Amino acid sequence: MTTLTLVRPDDWHLHLRDGAMMQAVLPWTAQHFARAIIMPNLVPPVVTGTQAAAYRDRILSALPDGMDFEPLMTLYLTEDTDADDVAAAHASGLVKAVKLYPAGATTNSASGVTNFDNVRPVLERMAEIGLPLCVHGEVTDSDIDIFDREAVFIDRILDPIRRATPGLRVVMEHITTSNAVDYAHAQDDSLGATITTHHLVINRNHILAGGIKPHYYCLPVAKREEHRLALRAAATSGEARFFLGTDSAPHTDANKLLPCGCAGCFTAPNTLPILAQVFEEDGALDKLEAFTSKNGPAFYGLPINNSAITLSKSAPDLPTHVDTDDGPVTVFDPGFDLQWRVA
Ligand code: NCD
Ligand code: ZN
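Above: inputs. Below: predicted complex with N-carbamoyl-L-aspartate.
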């Protein structure tokens, strides 16, 4: 196969940031993706409907002329979140999901949730109105090994929340373990799971063996090879519950290359070429469209896009860095030569 036409993809987990960074990274997403679920972990976080509306306006103003892109807004769940505000933001069509960060789990998550009982009324309201909860699924306990934090979260937090809140639609975001794949498989269709581009490509050796590679450090951190293979099998299965959330998370090189560097891989520019190659390698090119363009809209109850995108088999011309007014941002290096380009 030398060309591949897909329903235009969406990205169900994206960090666009704000200001100069957003200006620089937004076109890389908008050139390939029609819509994206926009993460609310700004400083300060996007907590209220009013804040989400203002952020949406800033995104649309940063969009270059002639580019078509719809930001799907989310609210950052705090222990003070007002259920009525959430319901109003959903009813107006502004907000498509609420994001749960356990406090301290990742970049800008300090305002996240510590005591899950305190968000129960909001979760119950969300179940009533059908508003999905996007979950960063890691516990933060210092005595839990960082490589086990996702599996422990599923047992201690996620499963109890779902049992206590029947009907709540939940997205397990950026899953990184076979435990998460197995859990997702065993649930009904109120549960979806996103998988990133980079977790299909790297395992923990890529980060740590032969010298530390800060550009491969993200959260949840990549796990053992057996987990990467489980994620690949899930993504390439075409199964409806698994869909693309790139978690493209730009940080300047200055902020990555520090004694305490930021977590995040910037994959917006090369996600589609990488995915085409991964799916082709696994003999599953016919499942790529389900993963990038169909399963996500189905979970969110949105129509699939009515435009298409074509990939052709030739080496893409992609930068290694994207320049921003805050400094360069390194594009994720998959470690192999890419063979597909977006036409
Ligand atoms: C994200 C970020 O930089 O905002 N980082 C990451 O490693 N994925 C936060 C997140 O999604 O956990
Ligand atoms: Zn993220």
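The radius of gyration is 19 Å.
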